[in-house]
Write a structure and sequence with these properties.
heterodimer; A: about 200 residues; mainly alpha; Arc Repressor Mutant, subunit A; three-stranded mixed sheet; about 65% helix; B: about 130 residues; 434 Repressor (Amino-terminal Domain); 2 domains; about 60% helix
């Protein structure tokens, strides 16, 4: 274990994976929900992030993130070679929060590579990494909402007048529900948007 | 070379399209497409292939070549071969890990080329020469 942990300085993802393994060694693998929760807490990701904020966040975890025009059917890409890690996200993503979803998806794939390397895969050969990464991205985005909700409610609680406070609570709840809805249905929205774009292309 | 009907069926499936969806998008009867896919009809006219190419989101030229209307350019073939070989090398290099978030399941030539370029960037090795 010493040899492995020695490498975590230049490889924060490895550090995270080893910490997860040590926490859940008795009950391996952890569920995707648990993994997503711990990952969100470790990465410090929020439900709203600008692309610059995402870049900084990734850089702080030893991963380069860039947004570039990608081939039409490619939404995101991740790769690692030695200690170099790269994530690339399509610049043309036109569904709100799709870039964050893709980022989390790519991270999940990278995590699995590390788990496999240290001999603690979380998936069996029958499991689809693609589907697991989609689920992970959805759960991680939901977790960001759950984590931020109390802070928003507390902020609204400081409003002294009744009606604006009630309105504030209602706004936070509606916002929370909309966020959860967008987490669950984002892949479907993406499909619809891509289909619409393709239809436009066919017509022209 | 793969027969045209099989090629068309594989292309449609890889894009996750039903015959009805192709009919709606390309304005070509689904019965006709089905017959082409089963090899009961000859490859359609280039104008129809143009509409199908748009529905399948591929180059018109690609369908023309598959239908036998055009010879595949030898330079184009060499380029394609080079990218495919380089991609295979990248895919099987145990020191390089990669993953994608794709729409559909087919890894297009363009995507393969992008992955190879990322490999070249990270590993400082050159696989594509002038492709």
């Amino acid at each position: 274990m010493k040899l492995l942990t020695d490498g975590t300085k230049n490889n924060p993802l490895l550090g995270f994976c080893l910490a997860v393994i040590s926490r859940h060694a008795g009950n391996w693998p952890p569920t995707e929900e648990v993994l997503a929760k711990e990952f969100v807490s470790w990465l410090g990701v929020k439900s709203f992030l600008t692309r610059d904020a995402m870049r900084e966040l990734c850089l702080s975890k030893g991963t380069n993130l860039s947004f570039v025009p990608l081939p039409l059917n490619l939404r995101g890409f991740n790769c690692s070679f030695k200690d170099k890690k790269e994530i690339v996200i399509a610049e043309h993503e036109n569904v709100p929060f799709a870039d964050l979803h893709t980022l989390l998806h790519e991270f999940r794939e990278m995590l699995e590579c590390v788990f496999v390397e240290v001999g603690c895969a979380t998936l069996t050969p029958e499991d689809s990494l693609e589907e697991t990464a989609e689920k992970f991205a959805m759960l991680a985005r939901m977790e960001t909402g759950v984590r931020e909700m109390p802070a928003y409610l507390e902020m609204v609680g400081h409003i002294e007048t009744n009606w604006p406070r009630y309105f504030g609570y209602a706004f936070v709840v509606v916002f929370f529900v909309a966020h959860m809805f967008s987490c669950v249905f984002l892949p479907q929205f993406e499909e619809m948007m891509s289909e619409a774009r393709r239809q436009r292309y066919v017509r022209t | 070379m793969e027969n045209f009907g099989n090629y068309m069926r594989r292309l449609r499936k890889s894009k996750g399209l039903t015959l009805k969806q192709v009919e709606n998008q390309a304005k070509v009867s689904n019965a006709y497409i089905s017959q082409i896919e089963r090899g009961l009809r000859n490859p359609p006219h280039p104008d129809i292939l143009k509409r199908l190419a748009k529905a399948y989101d591929v180059q018109h030229r690609e369908l023309l070549v598959a239908a036998g209307y055009l010879e595949e350019d030898s330079a184009e073939t060499a380029k394609r071969k080079q990218i495919e070989e380089a991609y295979e090398h990248v895919r099987t290099d145990p020191t390089f890990r990669q993953g994608t978030r794709l729409r559909g399941t087919q890894v297009s030539l363009e995507t393969k080329r992008f992955i190879v370029e990322m490999y070249e960037k990270l590993t400082q090795r050159q696989l594509l020469k002038g492709a």
